[in-house]
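Late entry, evening session. Most of the bench is empty. Finally got around to the prediction I had been postponing all week. Sequence below, unchanged from the version circulated by S.P.
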Amino acid sequence: MSGFTPTDQQNDAISYKGNMVITACPGSGKTTVMKEKIRQITPELPIYKGVIAITFTRKASLELKNKCKQNAHNTKQSFFGTIDSFCYKELIAPFLSRVWKGSMKDCEVVKSLPTPYQDYLADQYMKSPNIEDLNNDSGFERLFGDGILWMSSFAAIALKVLNESSSARRYIKAKYSHIFIDEYQDTSASQHQLFLMLCKLGLTSTAVGDTQQSIFEFRGGSSELLEQLIDIKHDFKHFEMTLNHRCHPSIMNYASRLLNPDFQLLEYEGDTRVHRAKIDGNLKKVGEQISEWVNELLSSGEINTPSEIAILARKTNSIKLFSTGLKVPHRIYIDSPLDKLGTVCADLYSDLLAFTFRTIPTAQDLIDKQFQFSNSKKYQVANFRKQLLHLRSELSIDEFVDECRNFAFSIDIDDTCDSDRVLREILECDEHLKLFKPVDKSEVQVMSLHKCKGLEFKIVFHLDLEDWVFPYKRVDNGDWDNPIYPELIQEKNLHYVGITRAENDCVLIQAGLRRNSMNEFKVSKPSYFLTLPQLEGLYQQ
């Protein structure tokens, strides 16, 4: 198994040949298990067949693909990518015209529906529409007829294609033998329906997830769907991977007791690696104190580079205030002004900046990303490729903006005014430009709890642990004596994710002053999370 020695839990999951659900705690090696299963399956397949491997992000899919292809392993006709990419490439683009009236030739994929097109639909669909929505709302087909495909509806459209096109069903069964879906706790109802349909077609199906890391319900994800699969015992065998190979046992004890007061504590020798600290002042003062600690950690040799340290916060405003006091080199991971713009042109400009600074390393990587939902002709892609290398030459701000505008025009984006303005703002701001540059080992990593999912660091400083800040708390009907936590389960999972990013040490920080909704600083009380009785004795002050 490519030099890999599995644990008994891992080996049981790798060896099983049927439909399965793997629930895997942080650091349990779930990506390695998926990789080993794929490498075990593919040699037995004919050259025209492969597996489907769905991951939550393009970065995760690229990492899994590269691991599966190590040592020139032939993955045959396997697909590695996100669920949206799979739906579009394998089902929507080749078969939708057989189901709905319209043509894929000039179809545009949009992340959000422009105002005129929103009126086509009978509902706003705050979460991803499902197959019942598509069947009951003719507006989706009308959108397609006018050349618009809304990305949020991809899973439901793909399922409709499978339901109504025998050619699509034959194609999928002929090309693929297995399907793997990672991060299943963040799967939407429509994606869940699609997964079950692919299983019904005869593809051996594996879902991998962890209900305790469900943090994207606001996007439509639902951990209950993972639990439903576990309950289908006649179709899916359940495997648990409970051994964390990343975190110090004391960190896992603390994180596990957070979610389960009855968790059987792990035995270990040495000091507890979870620390609590209350720092006087607001988050700017916290930044100044952590700067001193970072320098001490570097001097003592406890870390080799600052990039092994992460600062995690619940709120973007907390990150901004904290960073004003941070006196060591650092990288902030927040949405860029182009992300906030959220248009197709803004996405293109973001990719062009990332390519220029080599965060997207090759022209092919950029082309694969930019044209994944495109029907562009080969000559358009070739011309796009030729122009790309010019971006990495010495260009003035005006020249760079002109080049990006030309790229937009070359792929039929006509309105670039807002993106041009925002791009210019980014090029004139070093802090904004940092968002598009590769990680520098000399920089401490500063990010939100949502953005840290899937990452790991030697040392984690976890901010925002003040009452009213995290978890989210509100007052209903003026009843200040009985405030409520409306999102406590999701927030607790988010806290768990943050803690389990730490390998060696996790420092939980309460600032002495918190900023309220009126932008005033008030004396803080400890977060609800710091008052839980089951955590007593599991940390150092």
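Two things to note before I forget:
The chain has a mean pLDDT of 93.
The first helix runs from residue 8 to 15.
Will write this up properly tomorrow.
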